[in-house]
Amino acid sequence: MLTGKKAQYFQVGFDNEAEIESVVADNYDIIFGSSAIYIPQQSIKTKGGKGTVPDVSCQNKLD
Predict the structure, then answer these.
(1) What pTM, to 2 d.p., does this model score?
(2) Which residue among 14, 25, 28, 41 is buried most deeply as judged by most CB within 10 Å?
(3) 1: DSSP letter
């Protein structure tokens, strides 16, 4: 638990990975900073046809 003068925050669990992804998508700028760009998960394939879905992709904009 985090406590401040105006608010208290409690740790809670997520029901599934989709719920976590939704929270991150909605709040990425708060979590990673205002310079972050959110790129939704998608399948990445090689020219040879093999592919995967990465767990995370985090990139920062350069000013």
Answers:
(1) 0.57
(2) 28
(3) -
